[in-house]
Amino acid sequence: MQKLGLKQKQQGKLSPKQVQFVQLLQVPTEAMATRIQEELDDNPTLEVEASEESLPEQTFEEGPMLQERGPYTRRRKQTHISEEMLRSELGTVRPSWHEKLLAQLSLLPLSEREALLAHYLVGSLADDGYLRTHLAVIMHNLSSTHYIETDVEELSKVLAKIQEIEPVGIGARDLQECLLLQLKRKSTSPAVKLATAILSDCFDAFSKKNYKKIASTLKLSQVELKEALNLITQLSPQPIVTIEEKGRTPSRPDFLVQKNATGELEVSLYHDYTPTLRVRKQYRDMLTRYAHKKDPKAKEVTHFVREKMVRAQWFIESIRKRRETLLNTMRAIVKLQQPFFSTQDEEKLRPLFMRHIAEEIGMDISTVSRVVSKKSVQTDMGTFPLKYFFSESINTTQGTQVSSRIIKEKLRQMIEAEDKEEPYTDEELVARMKSEGYLLARRTIAKYRSQLGIPTARMRRTL
């Protein structure tokens, strides 16, 4: 007997306006001029607000401007004037690697839903191009924050499409997958097959440099093993390095924090050249004129103008909200890390999580993460990436808490000074850190050592 029942399920998706805001949050300050110019070129109803003396009024004729591509495709001269004005301050800006990935995605045959999920996944990538957030967590975030219902299987399929674009290895969830993705793109050869087998079946032995076990497991000769290992060592462990880190020039900071005349800390956007945008009056008037006409051309004009005006208003609001969110986030960081900014002493850095900032500004953690990603701040002490101010808390033998950033630096110095013929094990590092007043578990030492790119004691030993 067939059972009938009702099941309530909440579904939803990000609106185009929300998608636009999320995308703008990730754009570095130095790239905003380019992004604004793109929108000005694409939307004739949008203009830079300026005085009548600087920007001449442009009139529009009815009728002849209706062309095959749609009405009002002409470009305004003041658009290019504003471009020169903006670029004169910011210079030529290369698109960020996020933008390069999104540009490639736009060329793939993705459905609207797939494109939306792909944009979110790209926004979740770490600075080195890895996807370090588990797909189940991303699924939960999409459901709880943006009311988008999905599952790990659907996200996996979209991720697989992201992993097909450049650079090779983008979107990998760990080093093993990153290296295998690169081998997958190579022409088939005996060395490629052996290298794939090593990474697929003997990755643990490979990561520990246990070459005897690899040779024994796969029944490889020394020549075969050496050839496969040489191929693996030519692969890149960080996909983003191949398109952005090599030969890149330092970017301008996004924020400026400085003391005013009374000694208070002030936060501002560094070289905030975002112009004031508005919807052109001529198009508002045009919409009024055509609104009551019944002929097909008038309806086409009305539809086109209304659609472009709505998009212009969305963009203006997203720009305003972006600026407000950036400043609120930076002010919250300064507030919660005020001892550091006031004293210029790294020892004063407090443990800080993104959820603390999210609670402070009343926004979700994913928004804070996008603000923090790839952005930096200029201070009297120099320029710092925003991620510098976030760290875990570690207990001391005195009952106080310190930032894990301080612990990592002490750990790095301790390992640098060790006897390389008898390097410290993780257990010995725990004891030595405790003798200096820091209480850490062995697994915490192992995690911090891994984050610092320091191998195990056996791998550090030299003859």
Keywords:
463 residues; alpha+beta; 4-stranded mixed β-sheet; two-stranded antiparallel ribbon; 21 helices; 8 strands; flat
- Give the biggest sheet: 4 strands, mixed
Spatial strand order of the main sheet: 3-2-5-6
The low-confidence runs, each spanning 5 or more residues with pLDDT under 50, are 51-94, 242-250
How many DSSP helices?
21
What average pLDDT do the residues reach? 78
**Radius of gyration of CA atoms, rounded to a whole number:** 27 Å
Strand coverage percent: 5-15%
Kindly name the structural category: alpha+beta
Assembly state here?
A: single chain
| Terminus-to-terminus distance | 75 Å
How many beta-strand runs? 8
Describe it for me?
By secondary structure, the chain is an alpha+beta fold. 51% of the residues lie in helices and 6% in strands. The protein is built from 21 helices and 8 strands. It has helices spanning 16-25, 32-42, 77-90, 97-105, 112-123, 135-146, 152-162, 175-184, 190-201, 203-207, 211-218, 222-233, 281-290, 296-336, 338-343, 354-361, 365-372, 404-416, 426-435, 442-451, 457-460, and strands spanning 46-48, 255-259, 265-269, 277-279, 376-379, 382-385, 393-395, 401-403. The strands form 3 sheets. It has a 4-stranded mixed beta sheet with strand order 3-2-5-6, covered by helices on one side. A two-stranded antiparallel sheet has the order 1-4. It has a two-stranded antiparallel ribbon with strand order 7-8. A hairpin with a 5-residue loop joins β7 (393-395) and β8. α2 packs antiparallel against α3. The protein is flat and about 85 Å long. The model is unreliable at 51-94 and 242-250 (pLDDT under 50).
